[in-house]
């Protein structure tokens, strides 16, 4: 499954970058994230509970940040699974400045197996888009909260 997109933040690139590098802030915005714990430099363990359609359930996994070019690029590589299947993949994030705003361009590639793989690409793509949009909107809210402090 391949997905991509972009999101515009009303915040400078340095601020958005710091947010992406802060596991506590990311955990607040990742849909269903119950745990995001550092296990080494740029390496984390995660537990996520998702309550959408056929991907409903608890998933645990590992993620690692690679190819870091501060403050403009990184690649997140991860794998995880639960009772209904597994996911293995990566997301590339590129942050571009536009005046005092930031455009995040992302691309993901994932392999899916188990029961959820039988659901079909269309259904899984839809769920992935919903979760991704929720993440970026929640992140925008958190960035706005920080500005008002």
Give an overview of the whole structure.
The protein has one domain (2-148): Alpha-D-Glucose-1,6-Bisphosphate, Chain A, domain 4, CATH 3.30.530. It contains three helices and seven strands; from the N terminus they run βααββββββα. It has helices at 13-20, 23-29, 121-148, and strands at 2-9, 33-40, 43-50, 57-69, 73-82, 85-98, 101-113. The model has no long low-confidence stretch (mean pLDDT 89).
Number of helices: 3
Q: Summarize the amount of helix as a percent range.
A: 25-40%
Please give the domain count. Answer: 1
Mean pLDDT: 89
The best one-word shape is: globular
Tell me how many strands there are: 7
Side by side, the strands of the main sheet go 1-7-6-5-4-3-2
Beta percentage is: over 45%
Question: Which architecture would the CATH scheme give at its second level?
Answer: 2-Layer Sandwich
**Would you tell me the structural class of the helices and strands?**
alpha+beta
- Rg, Å, rounded: 15 Å
Q: What is the fold named in CATH at topology level?
A: Alpha-D-Glucose-1,6-Bisphosphate, Chain A, domain 4
The CATH class label is Alpha Beta
Query: How far apart are the termini?
Result: 40 Å
- Helix-strand string: EHHEEEEEEH
> What is the CATH H-level superfamily?
START domain
Sheet having the most strands? 7 strands, antiparallel
Q: Which spans of ≥5 residues are poorly predicted at pLDDT below 50?
A: none
């Amino acid at each position: 499954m391949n997905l991509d997109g972009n999101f515009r933040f009303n915040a400078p690139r340095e601020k958005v970058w710091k947010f992406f590098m802060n596991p506590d802030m990311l955990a607040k915005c990742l849909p269903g994230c119950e745990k995001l714990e550092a296990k080494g430099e740029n390496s984390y363990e995660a537990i996520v509970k998702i309550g959408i359609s056929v991907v409903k359930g608890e998933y645990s996994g590992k993620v690692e940040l690679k190819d870091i070019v501060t403050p403009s690029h990184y690649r997140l590589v991860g794998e995880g699974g639960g009772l209904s299947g597994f996911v293995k993949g990566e997301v590339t994030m590129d942050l571009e400045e536009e005046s005092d705003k930031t455009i995040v361009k992302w691309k993901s590639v994932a392999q899916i197996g188990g029961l959820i793989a039988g659901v079909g690409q269309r259904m899984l793509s839809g769920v992935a888009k919903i979760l991704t949009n929720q993440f970026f909107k929640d992140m925008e809210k958190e960035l706005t909260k920080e500005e008002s402090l």
